[in-house]
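Why this split exists: single-chain examples teach little about how molecules sit against one another. For that reason, every record in the complexes split bundles all components of an assembly together and asks for one structure covering all of them. Below is a record exactly as it appears in the raw files.
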Amino acid sequence: MDARPQPSQKPDLVVVKNLVKYFPVRSGLLQRTVAQVKAVDGVSFTIKDGETLGLVGESGCGKTTVGRTILRLIEPTAGEVYFNRENIFAMRPDALKAMRRHMQIIFQDPYASLNPRMPIGESIMEGLHIHKIGHPKERWEIAIQMLKKVGLEEYHARRYPHEFSGGQRQRIGIARALALRPKFIVCDEPVSALDVSIQSQVLNILKDLQREFGLTYLFIAHNLSVVEHISDRVGVMYLGKLVELTDRETLYREPLHPYTKALLSAIPIPHPNAKRDRIILKGDVPSPLNPPRGCRFHPRCPWAKDICARQEPEFKEVRPGHWAACWLVD
Amino acid sequence: MAKEPLLRVNDLVLHFRTRNGAVQAVDGVFFELGYKEAVVILGESGCGKSSLARALLRLLPRNVERYSGKIYLENANIMALDDEQFRQNIRWVRMSFVPQAAMNALNPVLRVGDQVAEPMIVHYGTKKEDALAQAAKMFQQVGVPLDFLNRYAFELSGGMRQRVAIAMALVTAPMLVILDEPTSALDVLTQANIFNVLKRLKKELEVSFILITHDIATSSELADRVAVMYAGQIIETSDAQRFFREPLHPYSKMLMASVPRLRTNVEPDFISGQPPSLLKPPQGCRFAERCPKRFAKCSQEPPVMNVDGIQVKCWLYE
Ligand SMILES: Nc1ncnc2c1ncn2[C@@H]1O[C@H](COP(=O)(O)OP(=O)(O)OP(=O)(O)O)[C@@H](O)[C@H]1O
Ligand code: SF4
Ligand SMILES: [Mg+2]
């Protein structure tokens, strides 16, 4: 039997409180700020030690910005992020640098994220070098160890990125994130650029490594079908806000928010009689420059009431462990 | 497909010349398509899907090494036409095209209405106002508000731009439209909307579709027939009903098993390894290196076997 404590009994590793990130839009000679892109507009959640939190939303909803701001790769506009009870945003540069070791990121684009002029073994060692861990020979050995963990071989270490396929490069990206033995990894759409026939190879590697090293993941995706098998809990974002957050089972079987329902209905299934129409939402995602008043989803919501246009629903725990922001479930 | 098909493709070949040798992007492709039908060409990145579209429409780059085969459109081999005849009678007239990433390829300095009207003016010499009226009709067909006729591409969302690209392909009332990855750059919800549009068009218009895509799940919504492409070749063609229930080729089976399915405990599978290079593809079955069913014979190229009307290029079905 598995005697490990379940994630629900474990302490929070990451706590995000009211995270806000606006990007200024500048214009004119003086480059004055003429508007703000409200990329992330008050997002709160926690991730338990050893857990995978899936974060899903359409392009531009702010999910990548959430991931990068948590790691402070982007400076926040407001809010707090605690990692192991330490406030990341209050940290001085040297403390932050030391902390970075424990928090890594895997990028969507396996092509752009590796230095084309560096053998991949060296790319994997780079973080160790920056953090002055081990001497060169030890670093090289760690790199090779990590390559093996992601299903590659020692001789691959001396090869260059262009010699690898997309799936292999993504595994190299994982090896690199892993070399520092972090506790927490932001996986920003790690399989979106890959052919479906190799996606679950990468997902399986991520799952195996999580078990082996006790990793915690924030797993970002634009599609609910990708995160189902890897997440313990799933959050859904729309226009800079979380609209729903709960455990995986509940989210897929009993979604509460109309946007989550639409996203689920929009997922096609490969079946000869799948000719049904999927739920149609009016219009497109509005601009985060000027999000709608009231509930941001109301112009597209098939069930919107008067109040939805006037007042913003609060993101709250409507059932134990099930958070949603919608007047219908209030 | 009882009567004569609209389109029959036989042994279509398109090789590109490169410094390292010939890229066999399309290598002996075959399939058929009936009137008012949709065939889905399923394949993963780099297997030659876009090259196939170019070969069908004779939109060839300079470095063609070999271009051969037969394409029968209503029983006439259009490969036999000269380039001028092809331009005048086939491309955009009877067979039109929504290229990959079309929505990003609209002309930024032309109003979208004028762009949609343009093929009418160029190919039929239609007067501008009549062409614009036709464009307006197409806008309605694909669900773009009429006041968008006077807008520029950058003023439209991705989903709307893609609809405009589809309207442009339909404006000359072609009998066949080739769509290359029409929704792969779009969000799930927008994708669903575009597919609803395509399904409606297929019902309402006298048009057939060749839908080129890597998206297995989405493709099942439109497909009457399926042709699976691997490393430049078609390895299985079948009717959609049978294909989505039970594909025959080992690659098709594994590909289907890799698609994640909601609310099931079945974990998606994967295919280890990667497709062979199209520069020097292996002599035998091109899938052999990754195939769990491989046996001695597979080092020779498998012929296309016929299994109850399904064509499958695999020795298992000899
Ligand atoms: N003009 C060209 N010259 C040389 N090689 C080419 C040319 N066009 C395409 N290729 C090569 O032919 C192969 C097939 O490319 P193609 O674009 O047809 O694939 P695809 O299936 O459409 O891929 P994707 O899924 O990325 O759209 C690739 O190896 C590509 O690099
Ligand atoms: S011919 Fe052989 S290697 Fe190729 S798919 Fe069939 S069984 Fe597999
Ligand atoms: Mg292509």
